What does this fold into?
Amino acid sequence: MKTVQSAILYVTILSLLIPFFDGHARTREDIQKEIDDRQAQIEQLEKEAERYRNEVREAQNAGRTLQTEIKIYNARIRELQREISATQQKISKANLQIEGLNLEIGTLDEKIGAHRKTLEAVLRAMYEDIPPNMVEFILMQKNISGVFGAMDYRQYLHEEIYSSLIGVKAFQQDRAQEKEKQQAVRKDLEV
It folds into this structure.
């Protein structure tokens, strides 16, 4: 074992001395050159390491950027889904409003029709029962109370006519307003 250790020691010493005996001695400049070469290699390796670190950072940032983009798109999708749901609810609400307005218009049409029928009946009664000539009308009556009663009846018919005309006009205005509301709701749906 001592021989092996002595041989290793001999080889180690020889390897250290060879530069001095290989024909020229290492100079300080040679050593400085080797140091400079090693420094250049170190700097090159550090630059490459920095480049790799930058690539890793870029890859991490790209990964974060992609994740961020995915999050943004997912948020946008959720936002659009909510907008679609809100729009569907608005459409449903508008359809219900239109349905309600249609019912109201139908009711007003019925009221207008009823007032027109009343008006027709009153006008018919007025001109069938009471002649337009006042003198003839008075002569048809048997007594003075009949004249006053017929005149009261005629006044009543005039008031009914006026009331029916006012009612028809009011219902027609209400109907026109309901139609305008209906058109506004439909226009909002189109937008």
User: Anything to note?
Assistant: The two ends are 100 Å apart (CA to CA). The chain is about 90% helix and 0% strand. The longest helix spans residues 28-129. The CA atoms of residues 86 and 92 lie 10 Å apart.
